[in-house]
Amino acid sequence: xxxxxxxxxxxxxxxxxxxxxxxxxxxxxxxxxxxxxxxxxxxxxxxxxxxxxxxxxxxxxxxxxxxxxxxxxxxxxxxxxxxxxxxxxxxxxxxxxxxxxxxxxxxxxxxxxxxxxxxxxxxxxxxxxxxxxxxxxxxxxxxxxxxxxxxxxxxxxxxxxxxxxxxxxxxxxxxxxxxxxxxxxxxxxxxxxxxxxxxxxxxxxxxxxxxxxxxxxxxxxxxxxxxxxxxxxxxxxxxxxxxxxxxxxxxxxxxxxxxxxxxxxxxxxxxxxxxxxxxxxxxxxxxxxxxxxxxxxxxxxxxxxxxxxxxxxxxxxxxxxxxxxxxxxxxxxxxxxxxxxxxxxxxxxxxxxxxxxxxxxxxxxxxxxxxxxxxxxxxxxxxxxxxxxxxxxxxxxxxxxxxxxxxxxxxxxx
Length: 414
Ligand code: HEM
Fold this sequence. Notes:
Oligomer: single chain
Strand content: 15-25%
Bound molecules: protoporphyrin IX containing FE
């Protein structure tokens, strides 16, 4: 059947090629609804680019719970046997929407679970930690990664100026500058909730929790040299789209780490500090289930690109923690919706200023080749940075481990 052009409310468009006008050289009447609607649709066809996480990829899938963790949580989405539709939106932290995929950068790993008790948004990344633990520094961090307002060029100096004044960033820098900082594809990264959250069981007992999504495809990375940016600017998006289209559905093993209140009070580190991990030896991974991405979006822009997430979209049985970076999104006035578990106890954990032992442990885990890559990636990223800033940063690496500073110095040719 021949299709007839219609307006958005289905009225037939009589003429899609000629304007209404009062006369040959006269003004256009505002009642030319077709003209107004056609132009305004085009004007709003794209939303303004997100300031962060603008560059995206994503797909729909399923969360399956294969293990019983009911002693930790009453959330229906986390009960054994439950299957929940979901979607994942991957992103680059600060790259612009049309930037090349193969950039050394943190990848956002955001998931929306369409549970029976409402949407649960989990907004994390491909690393278990972050650069900072204090939300006040977030805009400064982002600004250093964006274009300079005068030159419109990204500045290594701004980056290392900030890092070298922010020792808590050492753990994240060591991950970002290691082989894992430049993933080969989105199927080959792990996902982490990063923040500490809480689980609440049917007896209303609370447990602190970290969420982990371990790639079943294995970790695969690229070196700076392999990531020749002009080679294929869309390699990550293409890989994810084509894998799903070909029925090769990527999967991630869903695991948690759990900490009781008592252990949290006595932990040697602050378990609510986003620059720290919880050692696996003390807090072993507990199997929960798996996620699988198995459906590409029909309309990329409306289903993935413009999607928004909110860390306060939680369901009963899953809640927040005193992680300051997470609480920045907590509503200041008291919330009395009675939808979830009532007001929480935000006791202030003991102060932790040890920025060095966890990056040191990570450094010791690396083999010689990984260390070589770490040193060279850092040296490359320090190109053009003034000497005093480099020295300030080397002093921080020295505190992590002398061989770390020495390796970077050597790679710098210093
Ligand atoms: C004070 C700290 C933070 C602030 C103020 C903040 C703010 C924001 C904003 C404004 C957006 C963009 C929203 C949009 O335009 O749609 C965003 C997105 C996002 N954030 Fe954060 N953020 C913070 C910390 C973090 C941390 C620590 C992580 C990772 C653990 C994270 C992960 C993400 C992800 C993955 C997205 C993109 C979600 C998507 O795919 O649309 N954020 N954040």
